[in-house]
Structures are given as structure tokens and as C-alpha cells.
Give the backbone structure.
Amino acid sequence: MTAVERLTRGLVWVVAACAVVFLMAPLVVTVAVSFGSSAVFSLPPPAWSTRWYERVWASRDLWPAVLTSLRIAALSTVAALVLGTLCSIAVVRARFPGREALVTFLVSPLMLPGLVIGIAMLQGFRAIGLRDVGTSLLVAHVVITLPYVVRTVVAALSLFDFTLIDAARTLGLTYPAALLRVLVPSLAPAFLTSGLFAFLASMDNYPISIFFTDAWTKTLPIQMLQYVEERPDPTIAAISALLILLAVAALIVGDRLVGLRRLADY
Amino acid sequence: MRRRIDPVALLALPAAAYLLFAYGWPLAALLVRSVHGPGGFSLAPFAAFLSDPFSWRVIGNTLSTAGLTTLVCLAVGYPAALALAWSRGIVQVVLLLSIILPLSVGVVVKAYAWQIVLRRDGIVSQALVGLGLWSEPQRLLFTETGLVIGAANVFLPFMILPIYSVIRLLDPRLRAAAATLGATPLHRFLRVTLPLTLPGIVSGIAFVFSLAVSMYVVPSLVIGDRYQTLATLTGRAFLFMRNEELGSTTAVLLLAMAVSIVVGSTALARRLGSTG
């Protein structure tokens, strides 16, 4: 290795180390502030305390939002997994014109501005008289979660050996039973990865959810942003730290079941 | 002879019908309504919006923050992707974790953290004063620099991952061959590595730029109302100003930008991929 090469290699590692610090900084700061006693975000905190967690625990605004978000995220992820898997099977197995266009259409909500999708849906739902906030929120969130499932499951299905289904049918299973007993288990990693990221995307969504909230129904990101504007104290740092913990737990489960490298391919 | 429809194709029907009803049709209706005035086809709202100097400042803000954010992400993301491809074992796990974990944490959480970090008494200000780079503490919150830092932080993984996925597939023998043929390291990078990773760079740039053009949560927490971009103006028009006409106009402009970035970058990446 020449001197120039050693220098550039060194530089690459320095930048990569900076990137790690840069990427992790907001998470570390949030957790540190959440355990501080100071109400003005001093770092390092003058003393450690759990008062902000006690405040989260006692909060009457945050918990309904947490429950709404969890419910919407769970329901929309399950709906997306069912719809998305059926559609992926059709795209990979059946021959019909416009398959590639269909996949692009199904994945496109990920590539367009969320705010624009939210506005279009707001006006569209209003035009057909859908005014119930909870239903609108769920309908909208399936649009957010579906692309994650379609993208990952189509990729996984392209690698699946469909003669296994034929073999299962020869051995006496019906077509739906063969799908359920043979296809579903071998797609489990794809379901897990896409379901995980779909769930987190739904939990985190702000620009679409903002159009489908009212005084009683708010998702967690909406409620958090509103709280920050009304009372700028580290209570939100405490709930953020809990959300980071949720992400860590989800990644540990994901790593145990499919491996970290597979998760990076999502 | 009539061709029978493959019954398996019918499995696509529920998802396709659902998305058409909940997303395709509303989006199409938004587009149609935006060019439909009282007397038929009309581009009057766009003409009115674009004749206002304030609008051009908003468009300028949108493009400059998105452009700067993309540049920062590319400058940090390309070396990071290289390091990720070179690394093995525990180092690679650390690098991967520091990309995937922030990706799994919501944008509200991260934007809120930057609000804390960029304050006058925040750690960035403290560190720069401590290093002697700043003579006194300064506030980065509510500045354009602060916005670019926060946005680059949120979108960096979307630059690293596509570049990494291309670098990972490079055949190391290519560089060795170039070296055997006498190419200098700089030459090898410019003539071998860079052209072969260009499709990854293009899709990374397209990802980050389109995300940064349409970001809403980061600017509302990090820079506030005085600095408007197309996305924040769209949101404000609907949520606070109750001016749906203005909001629809800016929404369609935003949509046009996003679609042209996606279509343009896909075509470019495909061309680079086939010639490379």
C-alpha cells in the first residue's frame, strides 16, 4: 500500500467513525436528558432522576395516543401483510400485462411526499362522506404499510421454489393449504422484516396522520409534537427514550430471528 | 380464441383495488381539481402562485436546504458505505447498528433531540467553544445550518444503504486487475470504483433529495415558522390558514418535483447500470 492509499483509507475510517457518532447522537442525547433532573436540558445533567418518567406515567394526554398508535399500527400491519402477500403471489406467479407497473404503483406511496398523500386522502375521503377519524386513520395507514410488505415479499417470493407447492399438492394438500403450510413458513423472515418496518413506519407517521385527527383521536407523534409546543420540558425525552427502547427490542427480536444483515436489506 | 385469465392473477385484486380506492383515485382527483377552474381547464392558481416573489423564496428555500442536505449526506455517506463494505465482525455490526437503529426510531424523536442539541447551551455549541472554534456560545436552532444538520442526520441512512448495496457486489479482482495494469490508486478510484458505484450514488441522491424536499416534521421543530419550504407551506395552508386552494397548488408542485426526481433518477440509474 502506498502512502496516498493509506491516507485515504484512514480518512474513510475517520469519516465512518464520525458518521456513527453523528447518527447515534440524537438517541444518546435523548436518553441522557430523559434521566436528568434539569428542566432546561442541561448536559451533562446536574443530577440523575426519573421524574420525567413519573410524569409520563401520570400523563393523561400521552397514554390514549400511545394506545391509538399501537392499535392503528398493529391493525394496518396485519392488513398490509395479508393484502400484500396475496398480491405478491399474483405478481410473481401469474402472467398478466402490467405486473411491473402494478408493483411500482403499490410501492409508490413510499416515494411521494406524505403530506401530499395526506391532503389527497383528506379531500377524497371527504368527497365520499367518510368522516370517522378512526376509520380514516386506519384506511390511510394501510396505504403506508403496504409498500413495505410488497417490496420485501415480492423479492423473497422471486427466490422461492414453487415446485415445492406442487409437491405438497401431489402429496394431497389443497392449493390454499399448500400455501399456508409450505409457502408461509419459508417466507417468515420476509414477513418479519417487512412487518417490523411497516409497524414502525405507521407508529412514526406524522404527515399523513395529521389530517385524520380530532380532539379525541390523536396518534403518538401528533400528541408528542403538540406537547413539545405547549410545555417544552423533558417529558417528551422520557417517552422518546421509551420509543428508542421499543426500537432496540424490535431489532433484537429481528436479529435473533433473521439476522442484522438481512434487516439492512429491507 | 379467448384467453382465460390466470386465477392466480386474481390474488392481486384486493390490494390493487384497495390502493386504487384509498390512494390512486384521491391523488388523481387532487391533480384534476388543481387544473380545473370555474370555466374548465385553467392554470390560473399556479400562475398566481408563481407570480408572487414570496413563492420563489419558498421554492428557493426548499431547493437549497434539500440540495445542501443531499451534499452533506453524500460526503459523509459514501465513505461510510465504503467502510461498511470493508469492515468485518464486530466493527461491521457497530456500523450496521448505527444505521438501522436510528432508522427504526421515529423522526419526531430525532427532530426533538436536535432541538436540544442545537440550543445555545447545547452540546454542539459547548463543544465548539471548548475546542476554541467559537469565541462564545451560539444558537444553531432556528438557523438554516441547524436545519441542514438535523435533516442530514435523519436521511443519512437512505444515502448509505443504496451505495453500500452496490459496493458490496463489486468484484475485488477488478481493482486488483487495474493495479496490475499500473493504475494509480486515484486512477483506480476514478476509473473503476466510482463508475461502478454510480447507480448506487444516483439512487441515494434521489432518495435523500426527494425526502428532504418533502420533509415536514424536521423543519417545524428545528427552524420554525419564519422559514417556509413548499412542504411546510402546504401543511400550514391546510392546518392553520384554512386556504385549501393555496395548499392544493403547493401540494401539486411538490408532487411534480417528487415524481420527476423518482422518474429521472430511475431512468438515469438504469442507463448507468446497463453501460457500466
Summary: Chain A is about 75% helix and 0% strand. Chain A has a mean pLDDT of 91. The domain at 61-232 of chain A is CATH 1.10.3720.10 (MetI-like fold).
